[in-house]
Amino acid sequence: MTSDDRKKAAALAAVAYISSGMKLGLGTGSTAKHFVDAVGEKVKQGWDLVCVPTSEATRKQAESLGIRLTTLDETPVLDVTVDGADELDSELRLIKGGGGALLREKIVASSSRQMIVIADDSKKVATLGKYPLPVEVVPFGLKATGIKIDQALAWSGNKGPLIVRMRDGKPFVTDNGNVILDCALGHIHNPEKLAAALSSIPGVVEHGLFIGMASIAIIATENGVETLKK
Ligand SMILES: O=C[C@H](O)[C@H](O)[C@H](O)COP(=O)(O)O
């Protein structure tokens, strides 16, 4: 079973949590993509679903599948958001944003009654932080904001270089026109403290720590799918 097969297995298992008539948040990334495909299949079968995509990439995919889309302005409360993660721990704390979609993902998940995470078993870790933590930052004052992020890392007991995410030799620009600083921390000590410190910095739009948001994680392994609940 390849890693992509496991991602698909987790995504298909999440379909058990949705039903016709629901309002859904659609995540972003290679795992969420399988869930969006499954939603497209249900729509073809006649299910009445209306969805909010968490990125332009997901919006395009959903449109190509004929999925009816809405916005949080029209539909501010959703039933379920299903999304992938870069890392998750046993308390269902997540690192997200590897694809740069963390801001819309967090807004959509926080507007949903339930967030379900889907992942292959490589994403499950004892301690968050091996995956670099993405922090979305306004381009104005980037260097000054970076210094404040370094201070927040030190204050919360963390340490690691900040790297401006690049694509094709230029800084990667998010769907919201911002840039991403990836913080290579190794281990995140006290994720709650770090999350609060990062959120207090002017210039930081959002960070990739999703704490207290996911209530179910569906993890696909070689031997089948396991579900963690909070
Ligand atoms: O910004 C991207 C998202 O947070 C993704 O959900 C996350 O990076 C996981 O992506 P993938 O399923 O491709 O590993």
Explain what this protein looks like in three dimensions.
With 230 residues, the protein is α/β, with parallel strands linked by helices. The protein is 30% helix and 29% strand. The chain is built from 6 helices and 16 strands. Strands 3-2-1-4-7-15-16 form a 7-stranded mixed sheet. A hairpin with a 5-residue loop joins strand 5 and strand 6 (94-95). The protein is globular, with a radius of gyration of 17 Å. The mean pLDDT is 98. It binds ribose-5-phosphate (R5P).
According to DSSP, the number of beta strands is: 16
CATH class descriptor of the largest domain = Alpha Beta
Q: Give the rounded overall mean pLDDT.
A: 98
Spans of at least 5 consecutive residues whose pLDDT stays below 50 are: none
EC number: 5.3.1.6
Organism: Taklimakanibacter albus
Keywords: Isomerase
Protein name: Ribose-5-phosphate isomerase RpiA
In short:
With 230 residues, the chain is α/β, with parallel strands linked by helices.
What are its keywords?
alpha/beta, isomerase, 230 residues, 2 domains, 29% strand, Rossmann fold, binds ribose-5-phosphate, Ribose-5-phosphate isomerase RpiA, Alpha-Beta Plaits, single chain, four-stranded antiparallel β-sheet, 16 strands, globular, EC 5.3.1.6, seven-stranded mixed β-sheet
